[in-house]
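Protein record
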Amino acid sequence: MRRGRSTAIAVLAATAVSAGVRPTVAWADPQNRHSYVLGPSTAQVKPVDRRGYVQGPDASNVRPVAVTVLSGDVTHASGLAGRGTKATTLTMAPGGAPATVLLDYGKEMVGTPYIDAAPSGTAPPLQLAFSETRKYLSDAQGRLTGDGVGTGGYERRQSITPTAQSRVRGTFEGGFRYETITLSTPGTVTLRAAGVDFEAYRATPAQYQGHFLSSSDALNRMWFDGAYTVQTDMAATGVQGALAPSVLDGAKRDRKLWSGDLAVEGPTILASLGSNGAEYVMRSVLALLKLSTPGSGLAGFGVPSGGSNGLDPAYSNTYSSWTVDDAVGYFRATADTRFARQVLPYVEGQIAYDSTLTDAGGLLVTANVFGGPNSGLDWDIYDGPKAGVVAGANMLYYRVLTDAAYLEAQLGNGRKAAGHLATAARVKDAINARLFNPATGAYDLSETARGVIAQDANSLAVLFGIAPQSKVPGIVRALKTLWDTNGSRPYSANAGLSSVMSPFVTGFEVEALYEAGYATDAEKLLALTWNQMIDPKNPSYTGTFWENYLPDGTLQDGSISASHGWSSGPTPALTGYVLGVQPVDPGYRTFTVSPHFGTLTWAKGAVPTPHGPITVAWTGRSGRRDLVVNVPPGTTAAVEIPGRPAVEIHGGAHGATKSLVIDA
């Protein structure tokens, strides 16, 4: 994980070491008193086969799971789904109705469509159309096949001409669940097969170095669906011209590098695929840095092919901040020191640039411009720039300073780390003095938008440790006023901004709730937001998570991505807070285990590290919890349960497994 109290411990400890001072962080309770008992565990964790939750296809050749005849003369349509030996025939008589079939792959696909055909006589072309949801899919004549309105939204079309007795491939398509095949000119085509060559990251159970299971089937599905969402956004070298393994924002749209999205996607990949996906994260960060201008804000946007679509790579100040957090988060998880030294000048350059944007009180000021390193644009581009002293931008400014302190401390530069921590402390004080509103019990959107509660700023204030502990309960109450039946609105109504709900921002609120000890509320927000996305009966179900949605739970139109990696927050949150594993020193050389039990009766899982997997399993109810932790060789764990002293477990040369009984 990239956030939480363990970060502050690591910065302080590493700074002390680099300055020649013995760290004073105390973890051990050597006599194992205070309601801990070491010994055999009585944990009875229900056996659940995690393979049933893995969404990735078993093979790169994927066939549809269902076929429906939409119009015209079609025989043996089910043959296209692999059920039966008979071929499928589409026939259109002169003046007759086009023959159209709808292929349903059951979940999000990325890749190149193909057909195996045996045409009768001169082969007429077939028209293909693709969409993530049936509501916005239309046939070759532009008529909607679902219950939507309009012109079909963001569906995509292509033409393919059959060749006798051979496989014909179309052109690459981003995310889609549905495909229509239409014969709209007179003739007959016999199809022996149709499908897609899958060209995203295909993760079978063997590729998962991490996993999560619990007593909640819904949470289990969220963890694995989040992982699959990001896998559909991963492009290998050469896919659509990608110059290196890349993590894109969406399967369908934009299919670009975005640092804000990567702030969630990177932890999702590292929590699920571990080293199997690490290069995608690392190369994406380096690609953004390569696009950055020295002495200015870092790039927060990029095209994986190295080209440009006219948008300034330095999209906004907040996205420049996320680029820093992406880089340091990757180092925190992997201990890649070579990478850390490579990115350090860019991190320091961002801090130097940010200092030119601060006012006399030390807070950062963003500009009312549409793009650029000082722009007030953010994740909600449709709301336009937020200019002035904006709370969210300053929460991220504080985060950049603590990120830089972590990086400098771990590389042995204690003096620089201490300097960044001192600046961060001043920024924190200024945020609390100027942006906290006692009347609402929360932080204002900005110094000019008083009384407006912003979901992002208040979540980050708790998550980054900016909010004083005494203020956290009030902030949580204020955030809950934004909740609705389908999740959280991003702003209070007096903001005058869009009410479109953002799973990206909600993921940070879930982490903030866990971080503050509100596990039951975190579970409720997870359910409100993501239960609708994991429901196969939902008309917009794709097995992946949506970019955003309207307060009524529907997608605004066909352009909205139904597989957007920035919405995969449940995956790293459940690993980092329900299993409770977060790194302290880079690469989990030291780490904390602090499970947040909530309403669950058991949970278990694995966390990938360079030293081997950390495994955690716990079971029980409020009166007693049994916890088993496996600590890899060469690492040290601190088991931290609120209200109890921490227990230190050393992995030693061969690793160690310890059982603890936690009494109420």
In short: The chain has two domains: 5-38+202-583, 61-198. Residues 5-38+202-583 form a domain with the Glycosyltransferase fold (CATH 1.50.10.10). Residues 331 and 340 are 6 Å apart (CA to CA). Residues 17-43, 146-152 have pLDDT under 50 and may be disordered.
